[in-house]
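Hi,

I'm pasting everything inline rather than attaching a file, because the server keeps stripping attachments. The sequence lines come first, and each chain or strand is labelled.
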Amino acid sequence: MDVGPVVSAVRLYAENLRPGAVFDLGSAKVSKEEILDFGRRFDPLPLHTDEAAAAASRFGGLIASGFHTLAVLQRLLVDAVFSRAAVIAGREITSLRMLAPVRPGDVLHGSMEIVEVRPRDDGTAVVRSRGALTNDSGTLVLELQGETLWEHRPPGGRGGTV
Amino acid sequence: MDVGPVVSAVRLYAENLRPGAVFDLGSAKVSKEEILDFGRRFDPLPLHTDEAAAAASRFGGLIASGFHTLAVLQRLLVDAVFSRAAVIAGREITSLRMLAPVRPGDVLHGSMEIVEVRPRDDGTAVVRSRGALTNDSGTLVLELQGETLWEHRPPGGRGGTV
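And the predicted assembly:
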């Protein structure tokens, strides 16, 4: 998707999105300390907080909470897209699947594909998208489908698609 | 759901769950510091990280990241249920809706309802459940439906429902 000239100058509006467009979200490394810290705060199961117990489990070692992995995807989304987009709010996640464990040191690479853009009468648009994280081996570890509410175009702006 | 005598003595297995049973997950207070900290780490949009910008937004003030609110629900689930349950892994979230903003100082109350228990041939069971968080005013702020994989019954244990 060629949004370069637009997004560097102005914010990204729903009218700039085309179904099928894929955003590369870059990557993030997940450290053991972060896995333990998130686990202790929000998901204190031994698999996420206790190295010895995790080693003895069917996973053979510490793995990240799925909610931690989801938060990593959101961070990549914000840094790469939402921070310069006219997003009003998240509406709904319609599917979220954890497909493979995330282990200490894994580098996760994110992408977001635009599935559908539904303009509404009030000047906003519902954007349906698919987010994904793959690990260094190219294995899909998390897949998400959801809807976000966007401003359709700039106030007073003219129509047109990038 | 009367699981008291069982869960105090042994772990909670899928065979102990009945559709329609509701677990009270207790409550958690969400502080401004936690909203800011989670936002800065995982969802650095002004609505979650910048008090002045959030005050000028359509929400009128700082609100928690939806992923933070989701993590709060998971913490309540772990403390009240999963820490004593034979849960193997989360499988899928089939619906997650953020229905109302969570603001600094809000106390969120959690519940989990068992929707369906599907035993499988390998000794495990897929448990479909609905999680919810309400705020102090009784407003539903988050609703989630998902599937987790459980051990069906203790190794060598006899059948029977609590």
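The radius of gyration of chain B is 18 Å.

If the labels don't parse on your end, tell me and I'll reformat.
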